[in-house]
Design brief:
Layout lengths: L5 E3 H4 L4 E2 L23 E3 H16 L2 E7 L4 H11 L7 H4 L5 H6 L14 E8 L29 H15 L3 E4 L2 E7 L19
Length: 207
Amino acid sequence: NIYMKLLNIQKEIPDILLDIRYCTTYNFIGEIIDGYIDPVALGTKELVKQLKVINSKARQMGYRLKIWDAYRPQSALDHFMTWKDTEDDKMKSIFYPKYSKKYLFENDFIIEKSAHTRGSTVDLTLVDEKTGQELDMGSYFDYFGDISSPLHKDGLTTIQIQNRMTLRHLMLDNGFIPLESEWWHYTLKDEPYPDTYFNVEVKSDGN
C-alpha cells in the first residue's frame, strides 16, 4: 500500500507549520488543484527523518519550518497541463506578471513530471519563532521569475540574501539538493523512489 510509504509530516513533526497552497485557491492557477483533498503534507519516511533533523536545528536558531508543498500527486501535474491550454490567467498579476502562460511551460517553470511526485521533495521556508512571520526571502512561493532563483542577488537586500542562505545551508548540510530556479524547493539527495511517480490523493486518512 502506497500509504505505507508516505507519512503525514505534521503527525511525525508536530511543531512544523503548514500552508498547503494547492489545497486552496491562492496559487498560480487560482483553484484547488486536482488530487489535494486535505491540507496535509505527505512524504517518505526518509524525507521525514531528515526534516526532523533540520527542524531541530532550525528551532535552536529561533526558527520554525513552514511547508507549502511536499508530495504532489501526478493528477496535480495533469491539472497544470490542462490549465496550459485554457485562456484562464486570473492569477497572472501575482504569480507570473512578467511572462505569458506559454512562456512558463516552454521554459520549464512548470513541467509534466515533478520530483514532488516521488515523495521526497519539499517546498518550504523559515518562520521567525518570536514574531510568527516568515523570513523575508525577496520573492514568494511559486513566483515565476529570475528573482526566485536561490542565488539571485539583483534587487535583493542583504537580509533577503542572508535569509535564503540560512535556509539553503540548513537543507544542503542535512541531505538535500536544491533546485536552482526556486529558493524554496529541495529534494532528498538519497531519495528512496527516484524513478516512481505516485498518484494517490493528498489526504489525511490512512497516514
